[in-house]
Specification:
It is built from eleven helices and 13 strands. By secondary structure, the protein is an alpha/beta fold. It has two domains: about 200 residues, Alpha-Beta Complex (inorganic pyrophosphatase (n-terminal core)), CATH 3.90.1640.10; about 130 residues, Roll (Diaminopimelate Epimerase, Chain A, domain 1). The strands form two sheets. Strands 11-12-10-9-8-7-13 form a seven-stranded mixed sheet, sandwiched between helices. Manganese (II) ion binds next to loops.
Length: about 350
């Protein structure tokens, strides 16, 4: 996007909020660094350019140690949706998600005024007054950083550190060609980053429980042809599912990594692939679109499926069925798996 193009867009964005008094910036459930940094950047622009204060709302939990450290060290204030009434906020701006994707808590039938996102366009976003949906971007934080550059606002170290960390953590390992825009924006942000705060976030301390979960995940992980899978059973922190899928994806000769867990009456699945051409987002929608919400990108995706049962035994059998669907779709045999750790 050229600077003058974005400046025109910024004017349109300000126009949308100019008569609004209560603005809620809404992230997806269990927000990640991309949604947190993007919300913070949008909040800053609305404040500076339109003189409009706003709240950043979320549902679910901030589970991953790095994400909690991000809130703590950067002093970012989020507001749980359980503490406010959405009806009090006539103006909602969604970042890193869209209406009716299944991964956010905007009630069905409620349309936001603003959507800024990098996930594939959803038909439900058609009525949104201000839309910036760029599936070619790997992170929403890149869209926000480009907006900030065009706005010519002063970039403070807190915001720069948040955006830098979001871009870095979510695009590392994607390869140089894929992350071209991100490489450029990281270079731009770098001089403004507070390195000490960044180090505090990246080296966040974790609990003993974290190691227990990783231990058990590795112990129980199974290899089926070019797929590696782990079932964490019941978790209290949904972010750990993606962390395990990331760890397993590093296994040599593997094309796909899937991690399953039961959380809050749902089965959550995190999926990874090393090759964009495999398009794991489409795979997940094909596999689970009929059972719940599934979505994502070419290399990372996720699904949320209603567990239908509270019985641990039946949940296990259900996860088994879900695993078999993925094995069929990836052309792998579901019998005779090999243990990751013999
Ligand atoms: Mn994102």
């Amino acid at each position: 996007m050229t600077i003058s193009e974005i400046q025109r867009k910024l004017n349109a964005l300000i126009d949308v909020v100019k008569d609004e008094d209560k603005i809620l910036i809404l992230m997806h459930d269990n927000p990640d660094p991309d949604s947190i940094a993007s919300a913070l950047g949008l909040q800053y622009m609305l404040e500076q350019l339109a003189k409009k204060p706003s709240l950043i709302g979320y549902a679910g939990i901030v589970g991953r140690a790095e994400n909690r450290a991000m809130l703590k060290y950067l002093g970012i204030k989020l507001c749980s949706l359980s503490r406010i009434s959405l009806a009090d906020f006539p103006c909602v701006a969604m970042v890193d998600t869209q209406p009716s994707t299944g991964n956010n808590s905007l009630p069905a039938g409620r349309s936001p005024q603003i959507v800024i996102d990098h996930h594939p366009y959803r038909h439900s976003s058609r009525k949104v007054t201000y839309r910036e949906i760029k599936p070619k971007y790997n992170v929403t934080a890149s869209i926000i950083t480009e907006y900030l550059i065009a706005s010519r606002l002063v970039l403070d170290p807190i915001l720069a550190t948040a955006l830098f960390y979001a871009i870095k953590s979510e695009t590392e390992g994607l390869g140089r060609e894929v992350g071209k825009i991100e490489a450029k924006l990281r270079h731009f942000l770098y001089p403004y980053v507070d390195q000490k705060l960044l180090a505090n976030i990246e080296n966040a301390r974790v609990s003993r429980e974290y190691f227990q979960i990783i231990h058990s995940a590795l112990e129980h992980a199974l290899i089926y042809g070019d797929v590696v899978m782990a079932n964490l059973e019941t978790v209290t922190n949904p972010d750990i599912i993606a962390e395990v899928a990331d760890v397993l994806m590093r296994l040599e000769k593997i094309k796909w990594s899937f991690c399953f867990a039961a959380y809050n009456g749902d089965i959550l699945v995190s999926a990874r692939t090393i090759d964009r051409a495999n398009d794991v987002g489409t795979l997940m929608r094909t596999a689970f679109g009929d059972l719940g919400s599934a979505g994502g990108h070419e290399m990372m995706a996720g699904a949320k499926i209603w567990a239908k049962t509270t019985s641990p035994v039946r949940k296990k059998a259900f996860i088994r069925q879900l695993m078999n669907r993925l094995l069929r779709l990836t052309g792998n045999n579901s019998d005779k798996p090999e243990k990751l750790i013999a």
